[in-house]
Amino acid sequence: MNLTFTLIEEITRNDGSIYYELGNITENSRAEYAADHGFIKEVRILKMNVPRSSHLEKVEAYLNETYEELPIECDHFPEWKKTPEIQKEMDQILLDNKLG
C-alpha cells in the first residue's frame, strides 16, 4: 500500500476496548463501514491534519510495507499490529498531538 496518513482515529473494538490508529479519509471511510456492519463498535476522528514528523513517517512506512490496502466494503476490519519499536513511535505521535 502507499498511503499518506493525516488523521488520528480512536477505534473501539466490539469488546469495548479502545486503540488509536493513523488514518486518512479513505481509511476512515473503511472504519465507518466496519462500524456500520458490526466489525468494530465505533470510530472517532481525534485529530485532523496531523503534522508530518519523523515518528509519523516511520509508522507510515511500516504500515505501507506491512499491510495491503483493502476495499472500503470488506467483510472484516483488520487491526494493524505493530512491532514494539513502531508502537513506541505511535505513542510518541499521540504525545506530540496531546492525545497520550
Automatic annotation (TrEMBL):
Highest taxon of the lineage: Bacteria
Protein name (Swiss-Prot/TrEMBL): Uncharacterized protein
